[in-house]
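ok so for the tutorial part 2 we go from a plain amino acid sequence to predicted structure tokens. step 1 is just haveing the sequence, like this:
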Amino acid sequence: MIELEGVPELIDPVMVAAFEGWNDAGDAASTAVAHLDREWKGEVFAALDAEDYYDFQVNRPTVWMDAGVRKITWPTTRLSVVRVGGEKPRDLVLVRGIEPSMRWRSFCNELLGFAHELGVELVVILGALLGDTPHTRPVPISGTTSDPDLARRMDLEETKYEGPTGIVGVLQEACTHAGVPAVSLWAAVPHYVSQPPNPKATLALLNRLEDLIDVRIPLGELPEDARAWQVGVDQLAAEDSEVAEYVQTLEEARDTAELPEASGEAIAREFERYLRRRDGGPSPEDRTRPPMPPKPGNKDDEDSSDD
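step 2 — the prediction. this is what the tokens look like for a chain of 307 residues:
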């Protein structure tokens, strides 16, 4: 049974989730949710029982000192809530944890139980993968869903992926079968510079999330961190002729593949974001954005392994 004492009634809540591990190249996705939690001072209201979902030989607990007393922090998944102010207040339920080692269906059902009890209208799951993309170009962000109506309404791709999947894919399908609208946002991280952090990918995910759920996200020092990251990678690439040549090859492939229409749309989207941040209000795109999908009814969850 889920107890939510102390959690106020939420306004148009959206659940935003990310999990460390296989779905989180460069820690880009989990860092994005951590940024939201930090900037909006999230309050943790629940944590899943670590014993149920984690192999402690894979994800080991950590020991730390608190006023001379030794304490243990167990790997788990925590839920917090933040209220986004502005003309149209909205609440976010943030889910941040580690990809579970076992019992994935029970894990997803428990998260969906919280979503149901809190009246969540949309679940957005953030992920990051390694790709053949140059660090010098904008980070590719793909938005996917299994719901064709949601794909059309929110300008997303209907997922056609087949192959191994992680908790992001499993949770998205669990949401779909339970009648909860769900979207996955994926950032492509250059495979030749995959070590965390990757603030440029984190920033790209937050920008896309901002457009998707119609909120203004405070970015803090993240844009400057992203610029510094790219300068640092530029310097490393310049010191190795093979890497520099490889990056140039990726740049040429990327520039050739991009259609002028797509580039124009990207420029327009960035300009709209600039105007929104400068004026502190909604952009023309925001004012014409279709409303959030209606809150669905409950359906029985089904097993699925498709991403």
